Amino acid sequence: MTSFSDVSSVVLGPLAQRSDADWYRASDGKWSPVQIVHHLALGIEHSGRTFESRREREPMRRRPRTLFQISAYFFITTIGWSPRRRAPPATLPAVQPERAAVERQFREGVERFERLTRELLPRRSGDLFVKHPVLGDLTLPEWLQFHTWHCSHHARQIRERLAA
């Protein structure tokens, strides 16, 4: 996947026409596909809503990022490195999220980001920030790149669970 505009089809495509049993299939304490989609929806929704709430602010300045934050962003979004870490509490999925609600939340979050992209870029591409819990302050283009990678990463997990 090369573009944020592909995330809906990459994440939800493998689940199209699948039964509820497939959406809720999990093993070995791993998240089910519906939980993965919920996790992605929560992250996209949070960062999108935060950008929306800040869109009218004066230009912002990025807080200094550590060498780790800069390196991690590069390795994640350029090389595709996937660090082993727990998801931030705000993005932990429910134990049994409702399939239709999760799918709707994911699609609405993606639509919000696409609308923000049309409304804010390129004008606000370098002076509006939302903090990522590990990577520090990210611009809208950086969040788009992160979410593209993150969705691709978890879409692989969805496909693995469906193949099991």
What's the CATH architecture?
Up-down Bundle
Question: Count the strands?
Answer: 2
Strand content: under 5%
In helices, the fraction of residues equals 55-70%
Task: Quote the average pLDDT.
Answer: 94
Can you walk through the features of this model?
The protein has a single domain (4-163), classed as Four Helix Bundle (Hemerythrin (Met), subunit A) (Up-down Bundle), CATH 1.20.120.450. Helix content is 55%, strand content 4%. The chain is built from 6 helices and 2 strands, in the order αααααββα. Strands 1-2 form a two-stranded antiparallel sheet. α3 (33-54) runs parallel beside α5 and α3 (33-54) runs antiparallel to α6. The longest helix has 24 residues, at 140-163. The relative contact order is 0.24.
Give the gist of this structure:
With 164 residues, the protein is mainly α. Helix content is 55%, strand content 4%. It has a single domain (4-163), classed as Four Helix Bundle (Hemerythrin (Met), subunit A).
List the helices and strands and how they pair.
Layout (H helix, E strand, L loop, with lengths): L6 H6 L7 H4 L9 H22 L12 H13 L19 H22 L9 E3 L3 E3 L1 H24 L1
Helix pairs in contact: 3-5, 3-6
Provide the descriptors you would attach to this structure in a database record:
single chain, 164 residues, mainly alpha, Four Helix Bundle (Hemerythrin (Met), subunit A), two-stranded antiparallel ribbon, 6 helices, 2 strands, 4% strand, globular
